[in-house]
Each structure stands twice: as C-alpha cells, then as structure tokens.
Specification:
The structure holds two protein chains of two kinds.
Chain A: H1 3-6, H2 10-45, H3 47-56, H4 59-84, H5 88-118, H6 134-170, H7 180-205
Helix pairs in contact in A: 2-3, 2-6, 2-7, 3-6, 4-5, 4-7, 5-6, 6-7
Chain B: H1 16-21, H2 26-54, H3 65-100, H4 109-131, H5 145-148, H6 153-180, H7 193-225, H8 238-272, H9 279-292, H10 308-337, H11 345-368, H12 370-376, H13 380-410, E1 412-413, H14 416-442, H15 457-487, E2 489-490
Antiparallel strand pairs in B: 1-2
Helix pairs in contact in B: 2-3, 2-4, 2-15, 3-4, 3-6, 3-7, 3-8, 3-13, 4-6, 6-7, 7-8, 7-9, 8-10, 8-13, 9-10, 10-11, 11-13, 11-14, 13-14, 14-15
The chains are: A mainly alpha, B mainly alpha.
Chain lengths: 207, 534
Amino acid sequence: MKPEEIYADRRARTHALHLGMWIFLGSETLLFAGLFGLYSAYRAQFPADFATAVGHNDATIGTINTLVLIVSSFFVAWSIHALRGGHRRMCIASLVTAMALGASFLGLKTIEYSHHFAEGIAPGAQYTSTELPEAGARTFFTLYYAMTGLHALHVIAGLAILGWLATRVRRRRTTTERHVELELGGLYWHLIDVVWIFLWPLLYLTG
Amino acid sequence: MTESPLPESFWRDGRGLRGWLLTTDHKRIGILFFFGTTLALILGGTFALVLRLELLTPDKTLVDAHTYNQLFTHHGVVMVWMFLIPSIPGVFGNFFVPIMIGAKDVAFPRLNLASFYVYLLGSVVTLVALVAGGVDTGWTFYAPYSASTNGAVGWVVTGVFILGISTIMSGINFIVTIHTLRAKGVGWMGIPIFVWTIYATSIIQVLATPVLGLSLMLVGIDHAWGLGLFDPAAGGDPVLFQHLFWFYSHPAVYIMILPALGVITEIVCTFSRNPPVSYRLLLVSALGIAFVGFLTWGHHMFIAGMSTFDSGVFGALSMLVAIFSAIKVFTWVATLYGGRISLGTPILYFFGFSFLFVFGGMSGVAVATSSLDVHWHDTYFVVAHFHFIMVGGSLTAYLAALHYWFPKVTGRQYSGRWGLVSAMMVTLGFFFTFMPQFLLGNAGMPRRYYSYPDRYQWLNVMSTAGASVLALGLLLTVGALAVACVRGKRAPADPWGSASPEWQVPSPPPQHNFVTPPDPRHGPYDYDGRERSE
C-alpha cells in the first residue's frame, strides 16, 4: 500500500519516520552499550594496565579526529538548513564537505591502526607487543579494535548514506518541500558523532 | 447452505505469486511468517523427537554423543530464534495489530516485507551450519568453549545476528504503527490488550536484541581469529559473556511470552463475553514484565561466582515477574467468573495454558531462590521449568491463537471435535513430556547429558512417550486445519460473538481491511454496549 493511503497527511508520515529513526538510534546505542559495559568491567579488573595502554594511544590524532567529526556534523546540519532555505547548491556542497571530513577521519584512523600494527599491537591472539603490561593491555587493545572498528563500520555506512542524499538533492528528488530523508540521514550521522565523543575520552584521554 | 465463491478478500489481488512474494500487505506478510515459522517448528520439533528417542535408553539408541550435542544446540537455536520469537508477533501481530487499531497497514510496509526476507536469510544462514559441520555449544554459546570448538559456530552466530536484525525491524515497525496509526477516536486505552503486549514486546526487541547481536559477533570473531576476550588464558572473563548473553536472552523470554499473554486475554474476554475485570492491571502488568525483565538476568549465574547479596537482589527482582504474571492469571479467572462462558477450541487451549503457565511460573519462583537453585542449576529441573513457559505457555497460546483467528483469516470454520481431541493430546502429551523432567532434575540428572544411570530410565521413557503424544497432537492440528482450509464451513464475520474490532470486518478481511470505517465508539470489550471500567 502506498504511504499516502496509510497516513492522514504528509505531516503524520514525517512524524512516523522521525519516531522510527529515533527508536532505531536507541537500538544502535544499545549495540555500543555492550562494548561500553565490557570496557567498564575490564577497566575495573585492570585499572593500571588500562591507564598505561590509554597513555600509549596518540591523543593528538584522537583529538583531531574528534574535531573532524564534530565539524562534519555541523556541515550535515548546515546542509539541512541550506535546503530548507532553498539553497540547493550550498546543501550539496555541505554534504560533500561532511563526506570529505568523514573520509579523512577514516584516513587518520588507518594511520593509527598501521602504527599499532607496526608495534605488534593487534587484536586478540595476534597481539605480540611486549612493551606494555601483558593481559590488561592486550584486553584493552582488543576492545579498542572492537569499539573503533564497529564505529568505523558506522562511519562507512554513514558516508554511503550522505553520498546517496547528495545524489538525491542533485537530481532534485530531495527538495526544499520534501526532505525528510535528509533529516533522517542527518540524525544517523549525528549518532556516529555522539558515539565517538564517548569513545574519545575512554580510549585517548583517561591515561 | 450452498457454497458460493469466497468474497473478495486479501487472498486475491490478481497478481499471482508475485503478489505474495512482493506484497506489502501486512496480512499477507503475516501469512508468509506463518509458513516460515511453521517450517521452523517442524524442524525444531523433529530435532526434539530425535533427542527424546535417544534418551529412551541409558546408552546409545539412535545417534552418537557428538551428534546428540549438535542436535540439542540446533533444537534450541531453531526453536528460540526461528520459531518462538517471530511466531506470534510475526504472524498474528502483523495480521491483526493494524486492524485492531483501525489502520490500513503498518507504518512502514516495505520495511515489514524486508523484515520477512531478512528473517528468511537469517534462517538459511543458521541452517547452513547443519551441513557445514554443526555446532555443539548449546544455544547459549558459552565462552570460551564456543571459541575453541570445531564446528560451524560462525554460520550460526551470523544467522542469529541476521535474525536479530529482522526482530529489530519489526519491533520498530510495531511501535511506530501503534503510536501513529490509531484511527481517529481510538485512544491508548481503547486498543485491545493484545496490541499492548505487542507494544511491550517490541520495546524489548528494540533494546535487548542489539546486545545479543554484539555478543554473538564477538563470539564469532573469537572463533574465527582468536580474540580471547572471554578466555581466562588471555586475561578475559568468561562470566562477562554470560552477563552480556543473558542481558538479552532473559528479556527474550518475555519477547516469547508477552504476546502469548495478550492472545490469552483476547480469548478469555471473547469466550466469557465480558470485558477484562481490569484493563489497567493487564496493561500495567504487561509493561511491568517488560521493564522488570531487564533487571533479572543475573539469576542465570547464581553458581557462576556471584555474591550471595547479588544473588538475593536478582532473585527478588525475578520474583516480581511472578507477581505481574499472577495479576494476569487472577484477572483472567475473575473475568471468566463474571462472564457467560461458551466453549470452543481456543478456550480449551486456555484451560491447558492456564494450568501449564501457572505450573511453569511457580517453578520459576522456586529456581529464582538462589539457595534452591544451587541444587537445581543445570539439571532437568530447569529444562522442565522453561519448557513449561516456552511450550506450555507460548506454544499453547500460539495454538490457541491459531484456532481463535483461523475463521477470520481463512473465512472457514474447522471441526470443533478434532480441535478438542488435538487440544487434549497437546496438553496431556506436553504434561507427560516435562513433568517427569522435574523429577529427573530433582533427582540429580544434569541437562545436556547423553547417557544416564539406569535408575533414571523409567522417567525418561515416560517423557519420550509424552513427547510422541505431543507430536501426534501437533500433526493432527496441522491435518485438521489443512482440511478445514479446503472443506471447512463458511465462517461468518464474528463466529465467536466477540466485540473486538478484528471481528467487525468480513472473514476473510478485504484488501484494505475495512468495508466501512471502524467505529471507535465501541471499544474492543464493549459487551452489552456498556464499558465496565475497572
């Protein structure tokens, strides 16, 4: 059945889509919550090892990446604002800027990963570093890879969504009058940002 | 009465097979889920029968020990994730929730269809494990064994992960549907209790399932590449896996039982021609179970090194569930007491259900007592307890729902006599399958064991005999309903004399659900035209 037949009007449908998106974001939060739970439990078990391992991470790259994501979130918000004001080109430019920032986030993350690998800091059984305290640091870095890896998968999905939205705006499928998908995609991107804001102190700052 | 062709209904849309495979009609998607979950039930049931036959004698009867371990694992996986969780919401929730709230469809019809195909994909991936070497971890995938065993762990956990995505999709769909698509004049207190229980279930699905998905992914990666996150040899803690797993899997019990409680409420009210003595209590207890369900997971770990204080807290919280469930049972009994009861196959299933559910619930209070659980933990006592809830409760209620809504969905009536026979067989067969298992567990027989001392044999024989009667009863049900689909007498719109909205539309319902717009002045329990509030 077509949406127009199900809903009383377009506002009702927009409301339903927003509600559905928020519930989905709640579900996504719980996905990360399991990892945050594991992190807390293991940090309580190995407090000193975790602090040393956090200190070993490059806080500069982590902090730059935080800024990169926050600025990209701003551009996503700006793209919605621009489209609402009828500025289609500015909307596309904002989305592309946000995507470029998202891609540079992944680039910096790759540099970090390769540094770790060079030092023998790999997840689980592949961990060969002897520099850091054995059990605790290994558990920390396994969790580090799980948390940042799951987050990176979300960034990749988010980039695909932003690219799809930019194409839709360019082809005038998503317009000033009808742009609920842009709002939903924006919400998703902000979630990715918010999750990182929690990962940042846990993985880089609390050494 | 002369047989005229069935009226125009959702069964015909003139698009043939395409109209089924690409349908976005919530009723047709419900039928698709019916076929999917029925296949799962047959498969999981066959595994169970082989297990019971194997346990007929103390030593080898049919299969070797390794195959036995794989069979109980796949039995659990298929029954929990491919049958129990999607059964009532996927089939009857999809079919009836929109009609009950006066909507033409669910909020996101394409997402609804997608959830079916994701379910199908997840089921296929889960079953690939069977030919890829099988899994012998038990459906709980306890680490670190699940990371080190040879077998198709990766396939099963990936399959269950995908099934979880389907669960989340349908959960979101139901919550948004119930929030935004209630017809004008249908308030939150004017929807049938069944809708409330689907709502409560959906909340659990959306919040608990991602945690399961995460822990299973960690197990899968661990199995493939040796993550060691739960391996004591690598500094990990295996109990943490149990915490994560049960944080989902205990609420999952309520995903499986809450819709059943909703179905039972509808049947009790219809067959006693009476509104529930307290709508509010039924509603509060459903939401209460959903909420408290998130705070009880620790009772699965009483002997895994948990402190006595924590055990006491988890035990007391678990007992709250029994209070909410008892509120429901007393409300049903009181509703029957004040009503004009008529007999029919659905209410017969309710009689069986109420006995089995209360029995299962009471034994739940027993195992929630941590001092007693030390004796019963990991014995057949626990197996009997949760089968009383999952089969005696959920499956019995599913069969009740099937017999209750059959005339509405198919437009035909089935034989009440065969319904009586199969209901008796299912209830008695079930009772004799699992009652002996309480005794076995209390006498010390551990669960998941392949062989046992001779003194346990007579109870095992009784259990296997009971399982055979249960299986025959289920086959009879399938046969009787299949015959009724073709030869059954034409059913009127409201054969049971119910006031609930789904019975006010033709049987089977037309493509867009309603011939005339639903009338919100008559509530779902408006018998004698007057609402008895409280």
